User: Fold this.
Amino acid sequence: MKKEIVEWIKAIGMTLIVGFIITSFIGGTRVHGSSMNPTLAQDDFLITFNNIKNIDRGDIIIANTDLEITSEDLKDLAPLSKLKAGSTKKVIKRVIAVEGDSLIIKDGRVYLNGEELRENYINGNETFGDLIIERIPKGKVFVMGDNRGNSLDSRDERIGLVDRDDVVGKAVFRLFPFSKFGLLK
Assistant:
């Protein structure tokens, strides 16, 4: 009997340790809004890698912002959401440029380090807003939503360049809807 109890305690302990390790590195998030259409849609559920060190161009990241959640925003969230009005928003965006890159947005086109960026994921949508950044500063990334006409992103001063320390995860896999199940590109 004593031996059986010890085995149960070991099994429960190992389960808790493995669960803690997994949740420290892997998370999940639900997409709110259409700023990442056509790549991501409202209510897609994504698997994320947390505590990431490497952020590359093309990655889809989740980042903290200083934008506050309003009571209007709460209406669009799940009824059991723990968020409250006044909390800060997270955004899901694609990394376009990383530290050291130069970036120009002109006449609806994006130029990265002097070359036009080929962006198959935006479905031919133009990128609005002319912008010149001679060099992305150390520790920062420039992000945009794939739905360029409907995305609050680094082109807007309310978001601006995203500090790497504000990046809380990298979206890697779509779990739901099952019809789009798979790795993100």
